[in-house]
């Protein structure tokens, strides 16, 4: 059985990647003249989608070490690196 390693998740990238879009949406939607209720709804939906994608990528990242390859799986992405030995 090949060893599988999970990725370490720090809190600061999550705060930056979530806080950035929230701040930009607040600035853009605040002075846009759109009804505040609809602006808040759009902001919440966009943030929820972005959060969902980030959580999927962060929580599903795995590294599998085989005799020939290092296999990396993160969300919908996967890759393979040849061993140098």
Quick recap:
By secondary structure, the protein is α+β, with helices and mostly antiparallel strands. The chain has one domain.
| Number of spatially distinct domains | 1
Q: Please report the distance between the alpha carbons of the first and last residues.
A: 19 Å
Query: Tell me, what's the shape?
Result: rod-shaped
Rg from C-alpha positions? 19 Å
Structural class: alpha+beta
Q: Looking across the biggest beta sheet, what order are the strands in?
A: 1-2-3-4
Percent helix range: 40-55%
Counting DSSP H or I runs of 4 or more residues, the number of helices is 2
Biggest pleated sheet: 4 strands, antiparallel
**Helices and strands, in N-to-C order?**
EHHEEE
Q: How would you state the average pLDDT, rounded?
A: 80
Verbal overview:
The chain has 85 residues and is an alpha+beta fold. It has one domain. It has two helices and four strands; from the N terminus they run βααβββ. A four-stranded antiparallel sheet has the order 1-2-3-4. The longest helix is centred in the middle third of the chain and has 25 residues. It is rod-shaped, with a radius of gyration of 19 Å. The two termini are 19 Å apart. The model has no long low-confidence stretch (mean pLDDT 80).
Name some characteristics of this structure.
four-stranded antiparallel beta sheet, alpha+beta, single chain, 85 residues
What is the topological layout?
Blueprint lengths: L3 E3 L4 H20 L5 H25 L1 E4 L3 E6 L2 E6 L3
Helix pairs in contact: 1-2
């Amino acid at each position: 059985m090949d060893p599988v390693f999970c990725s370490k998740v720090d809190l600061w990238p999550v705060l930056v990647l979530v806080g950035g879009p929230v701040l930009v949406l607040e600035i853009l939607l605040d002075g846009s003249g759109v009804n505040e209720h609809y602006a808040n709804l759009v902001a919440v939906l966009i943030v929820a989608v972005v959060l969902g994608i980030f959580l999927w990528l962060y929580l599903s990242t795995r590294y599998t070490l085989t005799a020939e390859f290092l296999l990396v799986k993160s969300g919908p992405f996967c890759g393979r690196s040849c061993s140098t030995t």
